[in-house]
Amino acid sequence: MALKIVKGSIDRMFDKNLQDLVRGIRNHKEDEAKYISTCIDEIKQELKQDNIAVKANAVCKLTYLQMLGYDVSWAAFNIVEVMSSSKFTYKRIGYLAASQCFHESTDVIMLTTNQIRKDLSSPNQYDTGVALTGLSCFVTPDLARDLANDIMTLMSHTKPYIRKKAVLIMYKVFLKYPESLRPAFPRLKEKLEDPDPGVQSAAVNVICELARRNPKNYLSLAPLFFKLMTSSTNNWVLIKIIKLFGALTPLEPRLGKKLIEPLTNLIHRKIHIFSSHKMLCSQSHLIVSLSRIAVLISLSSGMPNHSASIQVMKYLGLLAMSKILKTHPKSVQSHKDLILQCLDDKDESIRLRALDLLYGMVSKKNLMEIVKKLMLHVDKAEGTTYRDELLTKIIDICSQSNYQYITNFEWYISILVELTRLEGTRHGHLIASQMLDVAIRVRAIRVFAVAQMATLLDNAHLLTGNMQRMGICEVLYAAAWICGEFSEHLENPMQTLEAMLRPKVATLPGHIQAVYVQNAAKLFATVLKNQEGNTDSTAAQETSQLMIDRLPLFVQSANLEVQERASCILQLVKYIQKLQQKDVEVAEEVCALFAGELNPVAPKAQKKVPVPEGLDLDAWINEPPSESESEDEQPKAIFAKEEPKHSRPRHTEVDEKELARRREARKQEQANNPFYIKASPSSQKAYQEAPGVEHIPVVQIDLSVPLKVPGLPMSDQYVKLEEERRQKERADKKKKEKKKRKEKRSGRGRKHDSGPESEEDITPAHMVDIVTEEMPENALPSDDDDKDPNDPHKALDIDLDKPLADSEKLPVRAHRAAEAPKSPAEDGEAENAASQEPKKKSSKEKREKKKDKDRDRKVRIKWQKDYKSSKHKKKKQKKEKEEKEKKKKKKHHHHHHHSDGGGEESVQNGTVEEEEPLPVSVYDIQGNLQDGSQVVVSVIFENKCDSFLKSMEFNVLDSLNSKLQRPEGSGPHDGLTVPFQLPPGVSNEARFVFTVQSIVMPQKLKGTLTFIVKNEDSSTHEKLDFKLHFTCTSYLITTPCYSDAFAKLLESGDLKCSSVRLEGVIMPFHHLLARICFHHHFSVVERIDSCASMYSRSIQGHHVCLLVKTSGQTVSIDAKCDEPTLLGNVLDEIKQTFSQC
Amino acid sequence: MIKAILIFNNHGKPRLSKFYEHYNEDTEQQIIRETFHLVSKRDENVCNFLEGGMLIGGSDYKLIYRHYATLYFVFCVDSSESELGILDLIQVFVETLDKCFENVCELDLIFHVDKVHNILAEMVMGGMVLETNMNEIITQVDAQNKMEKSEVMCFVTFINQCPCLDICSMQGHCFAFHTASASR
């Protein structure tokens, strides 16, 4: 009997495996669905068996069916069963199935936590590996929280195979459980230097992904990556590191310079890398020129037999150019012809890339030309996707930066009108919104626009001709609205009114009909007004009759909006007609219905309205009724079942989805609402900069241009006219210039006119007045609302350099294990965790040390300004200007940790917490490694007053030894303009380069900062004096040194000796060392008990060696250096540091 | 990050689909169809990159694909991946398949999709590239297959040693077992 069962189950096992299933499906091509449904029934039977092998086989088949699109979530529990099998074969099948079909809302996932934990700690590395792989696909926030600690342990597993996977999965864990980032980061950093290249690559991978979203938190890792880049030979690692540097360089311009050399080497070594170095938008021109070479190579057509790879290079070249374009538009613009050529490429990907580039390349001068080319392409293009893309690009290009490049809006309107003739485009609404935007915001164009729109309305049948072109009929929405709103400009309003009330209109979509009806009313008002003057009142009555005849069609409309508006207006017109029959003058009153100008409102305006003080938006206005109450109040369903829904109390909280839906609906509504104009991305800026638009004179355009030229598309006509105009202008200018030259012959002749005309020379055809969008009065200037609040990476924007607080430790399972009875396996695991504990601590310590190292590259020098001008004193105190160290917060924490060395804190805090608010400034002097005679001074300016500071000029009185580097051509006493302005409360950093000849002596430089303080009513010129203190230590650069090299250096005998004794130093020895490292840029070479050797190097290559000994409260420092003066000064400075304690 | 890896043949029949982000089954099929549509209409000698479709990704994502004989290998990646790097990875993937299946052809992928998944799991994990060294990948895959085989052998010996079983009647099954594991 037993035998039979076993045999039966084994028979069943070979019943149908995956291969059989696949074969079966292939043999049942005609009735595949039916066959599969029988198979699924079989699988269901198999899953009911106790035999795990049968189950695994069934799950394996299910995985295949899932790929074919069958929902297998019903078997989730069986998958978990297979996952928990002790056999690797089945476990793997289970995890594979789980990774394919589990996701966050799969409820059985919570059953897996313990199983996964067990697998993670399995002695078999492949069990662990399979669990990690599976987990990476379906990790949920709960799993991430519960397993973070286990995975972190695995990061230091003995097998590189496990380490690699554990490191990689940490990224997923961070995403789901951001709190784990800080505790895990030190170990992740360690893994960057793992002996195994695979683990290293995984760590680089993870940090790159992290840094891509929040690069600033990872700046401190730059030196480490720099080392990796020069040492690694793995292409993947190199690519990732270069990508990472691409993200970091914008934040730290100095990096760019340093990267040039290794990158050039790399590029010479492998052209392969070129693809990723495009990410480097660094300042260096070298990189730009290099990539240009590469781009040229790739774009030049050669080697016809390699056409596919040439295409690849072409694509990458264009991609690289689009990256370069952002920082160096000039260098790309010179390739305009090449890029335009690419528009003709047969490959759509390349064409799209080229289009992208065009966006950044337009200028006032070439806009028309480029758009003309694009229009040609629109006509030629087959395939709607590409054509739609072209259309959006044309509109993007023209409307960018608040129509910055458009000199002739008539041309633009005609382009838009031409675009409406496109067949089958989806972007009707885009064209419509552009038309509305231009008509509303460019006053001067309205006459022209209205005329064009009237023609459009007249020819509406062309647009609505067939159903396929429905997308484009959105344009009629804009046309109708413009004609209605600006009807006073219409030449023949009666005709337009007639066009708007044609019966054909009823076939348009509802929202367009609604606009038609409303604007017909506006037109009606205008027509009445025009006719009022006439003695003959029949014309006016005829108009009313027309309305009354046609409107009933809309009253019958199925669309509620149309119906409502139509019946309203119908009644109104009937009433008007009655009055007309009594010879009452009504026009004025009717016009009053639509009086008043509508200003464009920026789409963000609503959000920017500041919340008035004392208003708590979250507070209940009425106490929310209790749940039961609201249930009681539910009225009985009398009419329909959905009735109760409507009567639900309004203040019940709506769930997230509903909110999102409503938001979406509102957005939609706004998009369709002509009063909501979508802002171009930089409109905000324009808003701030635009001078009062009201003062710009609005010039009427004379419509000498015929509206339609037979044969030629209209926009071409405008291009021609524009060219003529420009030519004429240029000629005028030439004449003028000649005159000028004649007048002052002695003056240096400018070659200006012979060269190509520059941007500024092109004046717009007519003064256009681009009305900016309205914003609430005290709108906040910040523009941070562009960020997507749902971005999971936002949560990972965590300062990684702060020391860990105890509360931040990862949840360890210990307390839970205590409750549950321990299995032997778990015991082992607990031990494991315990042994991890000290390790963790040590890594923490290491991290702190590391941080010291990072810090000690920079000197921070307190700098208190002499405050001499007593005349202004009071005023200035108010406008206190504080230049504050950037990383003050960080530093603060740092001190906190070395709390017993308390005296030091005063260095920082003392300057900030001055009793009287005096301008205090901290800056950073750093030597330039590449040039021994340069130091860079970074100064942070912070505006602490309530006024706007501008025209800041930084000037330093040069000494014989040190000079501020000024741009060529400026005199030795000219100040340097600080390249930014400071609104209240804003700080910014500026860098100044000084040339220093001798670095052996410290010195002070006097300087002044002049600036203009601007209030609402006045602006005053102010001045601040300061001193820059160049200490000798600021010329030292922390350089690591190995003990053998150090010994050799000491033996060489070129070094002069000197020593100093410090008395009464009461601090632990390692604090003392840390302090020397931090303040004076030394690194510890070796430390034995209470004795340590230290090393540093100056920017001019002097070696400085220290031997620090301590006994009791006395510290003796023996020092050697090849430059005795420098050494003496450095020692003095060290002494001073400790005397301040 | 890699968002999805798809393999389908010249007729758009999926041979492997691996999504590193969750979509429901219908959307997945739609994505495969759309991707196939986008990729298949491209000439042979155009570049291997394609701005993503509507369903998958958005502006930050692109499709990087290669066409081998009857199969398309398509990776959907975001901007943090290097285009050439991914092309290289596809090559490594195919070469690995070739080594593991000995002259891989579409039929191998059809009948052993689980095995392809296992190989892929050694290369890409959770959307991130795990290993690009082919030898390392093959070593790990082989080691795991060996383990699987040894487990099967254990099972067979267990059956053979089981006293109550009629050994002769089992022989056929054992044979079947051997061939099954060999064909894997």
TrEMBL record, chain A:
Tell me which domain of life the UniProt entry assigns to the organism this sequence originates from.
Answer: Eukaryota
Does the keyword Acetylation belong to this entry? Answer: yes
Residue segments, region Disordered: 621-683, 708-914
Which residue numbers delimit the AP-3 complex subunit delta domain? Answer: 654-801
List the subcellular locations. Cytoplasm; Golgi apparatus membrane
Ordered alphabetically, the record's keywords are: Acetylation, Coiled coil, Cytoplasm, Golgi apparatus, Membrane, Phosphoprotein, Protein transport, Repeat, Transport
Bias (Basic and acidic residues) occurs at 633-669, 719-734, 789-819, 851-869
One GO cellular component, as annotated: presynaptic endosome
Bias kind Basic residues: ranges = 735-751, 841-850, 886-898
What the entry lists under InterPro entries is as follows: AP3_complex_dsu, AP3D_dom_metazoa, ARM-like, ARM-type_fold, Clathrin/coatomer_adapt-like_N, Mu_AP3
Record's compositionally biased regions (Acidic residues): 771-788
In UniProt terms, what function does this protein have?
A: Part of the AP-3 complex, an adaptor-related complex which is not clathrin-associated. The complex is associated with the Golgi region as well as more peripheral structures. It facilitates the budding of vesicles from the Golgi membrane and may be directly involved in trafficking to lysosomes. Involved in process of CD8+ T-cell and NK cell degranulation. In concert with the BLOC-1 complex, AP-3 is required to target cargos into vesicles assembled at cell bodies for delivery into neurites and nerve terminals.
Instruction: Indicate the family of this protein.
Output: Belongs to the adaptor complexes large subunit family.
Name the chain's protein: AP-3 complex subunit delta
- Specify the species: Dicentrarchus labrax (European seabass)
Q: Which gene encodes it?
A: ap3d1
TrEMBL record, chain B:
Cellular component per GO? AP-3 adaptor complex; cytoplasmic vesicle membrane; Golgi apparatus
Keywords from the named record = Cytoplasmic vesicle, Golgi apparatus, Membrane, Protein transport, Transport
Where found, per UniProt?
A: Cytoplasmic vesicle membrane; Golgi apparatus
Q: How does it sit in the membrane?
A: Peripheral membrane protein
What are the residue boundaries of the AP complex mu/sigma subunit domain, all occurrences included? 1-147
The record ties this protein, via Gene3D superfamilies, to: 3.30.450.60
**Which InterPro entries does the record match to this protein?**
AP_complex_ssu (IPR016635), AP_mu_sigma_su (IPR022775), APS3 (IPR027155), Clathrin_sm-chain_CS (IPR000804), Longin-like_dom_sf (IPR011012)
Extract the Pfam families matched here. Clat_adaptor_s
Q: Which GO terms describe its biological process?
A: Golgi to vacuole transport; intracellular protein transport
Where is this chain primarily localised? membrane
Return the similarity comment: Belongs to the adaptor complexes small subunit family.
This molecule's function is given as:
Part of the AP-3 complex, an adaptor-related complex which is not clathrin-associated. The complex is associated with the Golgi region as well as more peripheral structures. It facilitates the budding of vesicles from the Golgi membrane and may be directly involved in trafficking to lysosomes. In concert with the BLOC-1 complex, AP-3 is required to target cargos into vesicles assembled at cell bodies for delivery into neurites and nerve terminals.
Q: Which PANTHER family match?
A: ADAPTOR COMPLEXES SMALL SUBUNIT FAMILY (PTHR11753)
Its recorded name reads AP complex subunit sigma
